[in-house]
Amino acid sequence: MVSLLGYQISHTYRYHKVLKDVSLTLNPGDCYVLFGPNGAGKTTLMKILATLLKPTSGTIEIMGKDTQQSREEARRYLFFIGHGTFLYDDLTVTENIEFTMGLRGETPSFSMIRDVLDRVGIGPFALQKSRYLSAGMQRRLALAKALLANPNLLLLDEPYVSLDEKGMEMMNDCIREFLKKGTAVLMSSHDRAKAAEVASHAGILHNKTLREIPVKELGYALF
Amino acid sequence: MPYFNIIKWIVWKDLLSEMRSRENISSLFFFAFNVILIFSFSFSMDRDMTLALMPGLIWVAFGFTSVLGLGKSFLSETSNDCLSYLRIAPVPKGAIYLGKLIGNLCLMLMVELILVPLFIVFFNLDILDKLLPLLFVMTAATVGLCALGTLFSALTVQIRAREVMFPLLLFPLAAPVFISAVESTQGVLSGDPFSFYRHWIELLMIFDLVLTIASFWMFEFILDD
After folding, report:
1. Which residues, 6 or more positions from B54, have their beta carbon under 8 angstroms from its beta carbon?
2. Reported confidence tier of residue B88, pLDDT bands at 50, 70, 90
3. Looking at the 3D structure of chain B, how many domains does it have?
4. ipTM value greater than 0.85
5. Which has the closest alpha carbon to A194: A215, A223, A179?
6. pLDDT tens for each residue of A76-121
7. Do the domain assignments include residue A139?
8. What mean pLDDT is reported for chain B?
9. Which of A7, B6, B53, B168 is most deeply buried (CB count within 10 A of its CB)?
10. What residues of chain A have any CB closer than 8 angstroms to a CB in chain B?
11. What percent of chain A is predicted at pLDDT more than 90?
12. Domains: count for chain A
């Protein structure tokens, strides 16, 4: 089954058209990297695919579920890491994970949480309030939640932002792990070199439209 | 996923965050304490006058406190874009509403329970034998206020003039709740037989039911669209 099917997605903010007939398909194990200059509409497209924003026109299916007609069902299959970290400042790292997973109907044990936190390098901070984490550590925590959620479709909006070199390596390792398990990953990024390490497909969002490019072209000037 | 679990997680998160930060409860308490203090120094009343004015004073204090408390209910969801997570969480949005409603209700009742002894002390009230019916009226009215306040908090959280819009929306629609609450409180404090003010209590409970059901139904559209 196709993990993500976006067909002729268009979006207009009041009178400003941002996306025009954008179509893309992701199969299980695909990693599609979205590039584009600032303001090209990458985040808008991500939000539309994450069901946070309704497109002006077009249809989206996640694991065969239409996001307009079966929104809640479609949402079960996806996990979105956006610019916001979705963290509650007064809850600890562990509690934040418990809450996120609790809303997904899962209750991971403390050892499972501890393992995944160690995996992303923030194990020693498990009992610390999330307000005391740095931006990079908050990103790692968001990734830990995604690892536990084990979604069919993972949407990452600029995942390398705030991460140090080791963090970026760890992010790519985790993406590879997701791909191996059959998760489809769609990410937007400005870091072409890092994204090229995991990308199976790439596209440029420019002048409101999406143009697919070969991954090997990522080393050249794109727009 | 059972509704109950989602409600439980939302209530757990809200109360735990509040207990840790004490941001809301402390500001609510000090605001209400000031209102009581000002009232107590403004009026020098005999016993009859006190009993006549007390229901109004109690609900003015609770009403303004609820605006302050309920208005912030969804504000905590805006930091780190948590509101977006609630929107895309694969759960029925009505369960999120009920969770937030119960969290708000706990918080408001906690503040009210602290304020009742202050009213007794500052106004020298002799109402110990009427505490149970008074608490019942307070709870019933607070359910109605929280039902509306939770909905309007979600509605206004992302607009710039939310501090203006929230009371503008809440007070007119909560007027029936306030009127029923004041009349019921009057009946309780005056020591009238229950049958004298029973219809106000019934009205209050009908409002609770209608407001909760209507808000529960509308919440999905507000959060998702």
Report:
1. B119, B123, B125, B185, B189
2. very high
3. 1
4. yes
5. A215
6. 999 999 988 899 999 999 999 999 999 999 999 999 999 999 999 9
7. yes
8. 91
9. B6
10. 50-52, 54, 71-73, 75-76, 78, 80, 82-91, 95, 99-100, 102-105, 129, 138
11. 85
12. 1
In a domain, A104, yes or no: yes
Residue among A156, A186, A152 at smallest CA distance from A76: A152
Q: Is the pLDDT of residue B79 over 80?
A: yes
Q: Provide the residue type at A114 as one letter.
A: R
For residue A116, give its domain range.
28-56+72-219
Q: Is residue A135 part of a domain?
A: yes
Assess B164–A contact: CB distance below 8 Å, yes or no. no
Kindly indicate the confidence band of residue A15, based on its pLDDT and cuts at 50, 70 and 90.
confident
Q: Please give, rounded to a whole number of angstroms, the shortest distance from the CA of B90 to a CA of chain A.
A: 5
| Phi then psi dihedrals of residue B158, to 5 deg | -105, 15
Contact B76 A51 (CB under 8 A): no
* B124-144 tens-digit pLDDT: 888 888 999 999 999 999 999
What mean pLDDT is predicted for residues B45-68? 87
Task: Indicate yes or no: CB of B92 within 8 angstroms of CB of A72.
Answer: yes
pTM attached to this predicted model: 0.91
User: CB of A202 within 8 A of CB of A193?
Assistant: no
DSSP per-residue letters across chain B: --HHHHHHHHHHHHHHHHHHH-HHHHHHHHHHHHHHHHHHHH----HHHHHHHHHHHHHHHHHHHHHHHHHTTTGGGTGGGHHHHHHHSSS-HHHHHHHHHHHHHHHHHHHHHHHHHHHHHHTT---GGGHHHHHHHHHHHHHHHHHHHHHHHHHHTTSTTHHHHHHHHHHHHHHHHHHHHHHHHHHHHHT--HHHHHHHHHHHHHHHHHHHHHHHHHHHHHHH-
